[in-house]
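W.,

You were right to be curious about this one. When I first looked at the sequence I had no strong expectations either way, so I just let the prediction run and decided to look at it fresh. Below is the sequence, 87 residues in total, followed by the output.
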Amino acid sequence: MNKAKLNYFVDLIMAVFFIISAITGIRLYFGSQLVLLGSNKHAIASVHTYASFALVAIVAIHLILHWKWMVCMTKSFFKKKEKTCEK
């Protein structure tokens, strides 16, 4: 798998876990006013926790995959000469 496809799938998985975490977080914030698939608060809290842990892990993978680019961009901010950074 080339790097572009890998980045696409990592970003897609990251978006899915973000959406799950956001929806369950909103559900927990508003309490019993929202019903999500008929689940109780404990079940929603568990889904939220595991989705958030997965999101943290996938963001770490995302940062590792883009590490060289981030270093290059950081260096380019502090140098007078412009340098092109490729992903």
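Here's what jumped out at me. Residues 3-78 form one domain. And, maybe more interesting for your project: The chain has a mean pLDDT of 87.

Coffee later to discuss?

I.
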